[in-house]
Amino acid sequence: MLSAPYSAFLLAFAIYPIVFAVVLVFLHWDLVTAPTFAGADNVRLLATDTRFWRAVGNTFIFLAIHVPLQIASALALALALNRQLAGRGFWRAAFFLPVVISGAVVAILWSNLYAYDVGLINHLLTKVGLTPVPWLTDPRTAMPAIAVMVTWKNVGFYVIIYLAGLQYIPKSCQEAIALEGASSWQRFRYLTLPSLLPQTILVVTLSTINGFQLFIEPYVMTGGGPLRRTYSVVLYLYNNAFSYQKMGYAATIGVALALIIGAVVFVQRRVIGRAEAL
Amino acid sequence: MRKIRRVALYAGLALAALTFIYPFLWMASVTFKPPLEIGSLSLIPDHPTLDNYRTMWARAPFGRALLNSIMVASTITLAVLVLGSMTAYAMARLRFRGGPVLNAATMAILLVPGQLTLIPLYTLIVQLGWIDTYAALIVPYLFNATAILMLRQFFLQIPQSLIDSARMDGMSEPRILFTIFWPLSKPVLSIVAIFTFMGSWNEVLWPLLVVREQHLMTLPQLLTVFALGGGAGTIGVSLASAMVLVIPVVVAYAFLQRSFIESMAGAGIKG
Amino acid sequence: MRLRRLRSNGAAAALAVSVCTGGCNRIAESAPAPPASRPIAIRSDYLRHLALDVTVKGHPVRVVSLYADAPDYKPTGSPERDGYEGIASVDDAARAVVAYLHFYESHADTSARDEALHLLSFVTSMEQGDGEFLNFIDASGKANRTAPSSRKSMSYWGARSIWALGEATRVLGVGSDSLLQAADLRPPLDRALTRMARDIDGGHLLGGSVTATSEALLGVIALQRAAPSASYAALATRTAELLERQSAGSAQTAPWGAFTDGPAADWHAWGSRSVEALAMAGQTLNRPDFVVAARKEVDGLWSRFMLAGEIPASVSPDGTVKWYPQIAYGVGPIVEGYLALADATGDRRYAIFAGLAASWFNGNNPASVAMYDEGSGRTFDGIDGPSPIKVNQNAGAESTIEGLLALEAVAGDPDAAEYARYHAIEPAASSLTSLPGTREFRSASGRRLAIRRTPAGLAIVHPAESTGSAHGAVATPMTLTYWPAANPIEVKVAEQLTAQWNAANPDVQVRVQPLPAGRSSEEVLLAAIVARSTPDVSSNVSSALLARLVRANGVVRLDNRIATAARLEERATPAMLAPLRLPDGGIYAFPWKTNPEMLMYNVDLLKAAGVSPPRTHTELLDAFKRLARDTDGDGRLDRWALWANLKTSWYERFYDFYPLYLASSGGTTLVNRGKVVFDNPAAVSALSLLRQGFANGTLPRSNFALGRDPFADGTVAMKIIGPWFVREMQEMKVSGLRFAVTPVPVADDADPAKSFAFADMRSIAVFSTTQHPDEAARFVAYLTSPAADRLLIEIASQLPYRRGLATDPRFTRSLARWPTLATYATYVERTRDIDIDPDVVEIFDLLSEAYEESAVYGTVPVRQALDKAAAEARKVIDAR
Q: What is the pTM for the complete model shown?
C-alpha cells in the first residue's frame, strides 16, 4: 500500500527508460534517423573494444584509491567531530562546503589548484624545494589526482552519514566497554567499527556507484587524457551517445556498466558481510 | 598528555578545514578579480572589481529564477522525504508481494547512469506535454532511489520491538512511520533532505532540456543560459554564478545548523 | 473534411507529434512548394536563341539580333518601316553582356561568361579608335554609319559600352591573367573613358541624356569597385555631380524630383537608371548626398507610381502622365534603382517596392499577363494601350535583356523576390496628381501588404491576413520560435535583430529562446530532435550535426524557397555553395557565419625576439626556439611561442593539428565521400612539427589554469584562432598588447597559394517541424541580410559567409571596427570546415589520440600513430 505510488513512479520514470535502454542494446540508432536492428553487433563490439575495457580498468584504479580513502577520511573526520569540540558547527560546515558546490565548479576549481605552472599545489611544492608535478598531464598522476579530488568533494556527505550512525551506538555499550578498561583502539575496533557497519556498507556502496559513474571531473579537467588514463566508462558512454550519436552502443556500455556495478557491489557486500561474521 | 592530544586534534582539524575552505575562498576572491588576475594565487585581488557580478546581473534576471529554484527544490525535497520514507518503511519493515522486486528495481536505478536514460525520459516528458511546465522539473524527481536506499538502511536499525508495541496499541502503519520512525530518524532525514535539495538545486542539464521559457527557468539554468553561454574568458563570471548558487545554501545551512545538529545529538537511541 | 480541420489546428498537430513515440523518427514528406512560393527561375535560353554569329572587320564575333516576332520568334533585324538600321546593335550587345555577366556571377555558368566575352569582342570592334562608337551592323557584318541612331559618337551606345566593359572588369577581375586581358578589351575601354571624361569635364551629359550618362556612370563605378583608383573616383564623382543637378521639381511639385535631360524635357521610364547610378555612386564613393539625390526621385515620383499601381511611360514637367506603352526597358531600371537604393540606405522598404515594381513581369499589369516566361527567360515586348490594352507578344533583344537584368537582381533579394509575386487589388489610378492614400497588394496565398502615403514617404502596413485563405483562418499572428546560441554576444545580436523584425512584421512574431551554448547545446538540440520538439529556426547548427539532420529529413530545404534562395544568391558565389550542396543539389541549412582561423601573434614579443611572422614549418620551429624563455631564472621555461592544448577533447584539435594540416593539405580534409584520406604527408608534417616542439621542450607541456588565456597575458606569443577571439581579446588582454594575424604556416614543401584556413561554419536551419516554412525562410533571409551581417561583425567580431566580404564597400566600416578583422575577411572564401560526415567527431577523437601519443608524449612514431588512427577510422566508417 505504502509502496504503490512508488511502484507507479518507478514504472514511468525508471523502468520505462531502463527498458528503453535495454532495447537499444540491440539497435543501431543515431537519434535522428530511424533505428535499425543490430542483433548482437553492439555486444560483440563491446567485448573486443579496448577503449571500453581500458575505461573499466581506469575505473578500478580510481576505486582502489577512492573508496578506501573515502572511508578512512570520512570515518576519521566523523570520529573527530563526534567529540565535545569548540565550534563544532563551524567544523561541520567547513567539511560540508564542497558537497554543496556543483561538481562542474569543483572541477574548474581543482583544475586551477592542479595547474602545472600557476597551481597552488605546485606553488607550495616549489616553496619547500620540491619539483612541481604535472598532476593532470602526467599519465601516472592524473587518475590519482582526480580520485583525491572526488574524495575531497564528497567527504562531508559521508561524514554526516557516519555521524548519524555514531548517534545510534547506545551510550550504555560505550560506558560498559570503557569500564572493562578497553583501550581506545580496542573500543574503536570492537565497538565503533562493527556498530557502524550499516553506514560503512552504505558508504562503500554509494562511493563505488559514484566512482563507476565518474564523469564530470574527467570531462572538465582532462577530456579523458593523458593517454586515455582518465577516460571513464560514463565519459565513453556520453561521447558515444552525444558526440558520436551511437545510442545503441552507448546503451550497451550503460547496461554493461550497470551489470559490472551490480556485480562489484554484490561482491563488496558479501565481503563486508563476511568480515562482520568474523 | 590529554592537553597535548587536544591541541593536536584542533591543529589537525584546522589544517583539514583549511584545505576545505581555501578553494572556496579562492573561488570567492576570483569573482572579484579582473580577467588578467585570475591566474594569480593571491586571495586579495590587486584591482578588486564587481564587473563579474555586474555582467552576470545584467545578463540574467535572477528574481524569478531564485523563486523557481526554491519552489522546485523544496517541493522535491518534501516529496522525497515523505514519499521516500513511506517506500523505505514498506521495503524495510513490511512483507508484501513484489517487495524483493521493488528492492532490486531500486538498486537497478542506481546502477544505470543518468546519461543513458536522459533521452528516453525526455521523450516521455514531451509525450506527456510537460515541456515548459513545473511538472517536468518536479515529477521525475519525486522519488529518489539513493534516498530510499539510505532511509531503508537506517530504518532497518530501528528495533522491531518499537513497531510491535505500536501495532499492539493499534497504530496504523503510516502513523508508526510518522510518529515513531520519523523522530528517531532525524539525522538520516536531514542527510536525505540536504542531499536531495542540493541535487535539485544544482541540476542544470535537465532544466535545460525541458524548459525553454525564461519565467520557468531555475537559477543554475538561467545562469548557464544567459550568464555563461560557454567560451573562454568567462571564468570570473562563471564562478560568480557559482557563488550566487552557493550563498543561499550556505546561509540556509548556517541558519538550520543548530537544529540540525541537535536533531543528530538528540536522536541517539538511549539504551 | 475532418482531416483538413485537424491539419490547420495547432493543438491537433501537437497531438499528432505527441503520438509519435521516442523511437519514431518518420518525418512526413513536406509537400512541394506551390508555384507562387517558388523562386523566379532565371533562364538565358531565349537570349541565347537570339544570338547570331557574324564577322566584323574580319573577326568572328557574336551579336544579338534586334527582334523576334511571335509566334515563331525567328531572330530578325529592324523592319523597313523604321528605315533599315541593321540586324544587331552595340546597344543590345552591351547590355546583353551585363546580363550574361550577372547570370555567370550567380550561376557560375561559364558558357554565359564566354557568351559575354564574344559579345564584348563585337562591342570593342565598333570602337573607332578615339573612344567613340558606331551602333548597328547589317547581316554581312558591315557597320551602319549613316542612320542617326548609329552615327559615330559617345552617346547611348558608347555609354552602354563603358557599362559593359566596366562590369566585365569587375566580374572577371583585373589581374594580368584575367580573361579580360586576354581578350584585349582594355585599350578601347581606356579610350572610351578618356572620351567620356572630355564631355563630363565640359559639363555635358553624354549624348545630352541622363539615361546615357547614368549607364556610363554605372560602368565607371564597376571599375572603381574592381580596382579603386583616384582617376576612376574623380570621373565617377564628376559624373554623379552632373547627374545630381538634373533633378527637377520637389516632393510636392511636378515632376517630383525626376532626373530629366533638361527643364523642359519629359521624364521617361525607359533607361531611367539615374537612381541606380547615383545610389551606387553614393555608396561606392562615400557621398551620402548622391543617395539623397537618388531618393528625391524615388520618394517623390516613384512613390506616386506605387500608389497609382502602375509605372507610366513618361511624365511631363507639369506632371501630365502618359501610361503607355509599358515596356521592360521602362520597368527594369526602376526595379534595379529601388534595389540599389535599398542597398545604399539599408531601408528594406525599397527592396519591397522593387519587388512590387517587378511584379509587372509576373502579371501584375493592366493586361494581367505574365510578361516574363519562366520556362525560357523570354520577355514580351510590352503592353500597348489604353484602348485596347494589348500585349505585344513579340520578344526582341531589348525586352528580354532588360527583363533578365531586373529579375536577376530581384532573385538576389529576399524581399524583392517575395513581393514580385504580389498583385495589386484595386485597379490602377489614372493620374499622378489625384492618388489614393493607400494601395493594397496580395499574394496568391492570400497574404496582404498595403502601402500608405505618409509625410516621410511611403509606409508599409501589414493588414491582418484575409480569412478563408489557403492556410486556413489565423486570427492571431503566427509565432516562430528561434534558438540562437546562448553565447551572450550572439543573444545580443539575435535579440536586436528579432526586435526589429517583430516591429516590421506584426503578422509573424518571433520569439527568441537561447540555445545553451557549449557542452549542453548538442544534448538539447539532439533531445529536441528526437522528441520532435525542435524550434522553427535555430542558428547554431554545426556541420557535424547537419549531416545527421539532413539524413533524418529533419530540416527544410532552403534553396528552393523564395527568400532564402534570393539571399543565397545575393550572399554567396556558386563556388562557395558547391561544397554545401547535397547529392540532390539542395542546400538544407543556410551557411551563416564562418570563422577562418589564422595565426595571431603578439607583435612586440616577436619583434623583441627578432622573429618575423612564420610562414613555414621551419620558420615556426625556429620561432618555437627563439620565443621560449625562462624569465624568472628558476631553470624552467615560462614563456613560449605557442600553446597546443594537451586535452584530447576532439574540438581542441581545431586550434593546433587541424588548421596546421589544412594549411598544407591543398584542401584535402579528413574524409572524402566516406573514404579516410588524412593519412597523408600534410598530416605527417603537422604532427611532426608538434612532436618536435614537445620533444625539445619549446612547447609547454601543461594545461594552463582554466579561464586564463596565455596569449592574452603575454605568456605565449602566438595562437591559432578565429576572428571571434578579437572581441574577446579586447576584453581580456593586458593593456598595450598589440596583435596581428598572418596565415597559418605551411609545410616547407607545400604551396602557400593552395593553403586553406580552418573555419567552423555555423548554419541556420529551418526544422521540418515548423508549420510555417516560408515565413521561417523569410526570417532566415532577414537574419543574413547585409544589415544583419554588419551587426554580426560589429557586435561579435564574427564573419558572415559572404562573397567578396573583404572588398565589399558595404562592410568596410564594420570590419574596421576591430583590429585584424579585415585580414580575417580575406580568408572567408578560402576555408575548409570539418567534414559533413556522420562519424566526424569520432574520427577527430581518434586523431586526437594520435596527436597525444605521437606529439605530446612521443610514445609512438608519427607515421605509425597516423596509420593506426586511419585504420580505426576506416573501421568506424565500415561499421555503419
A: 0.82
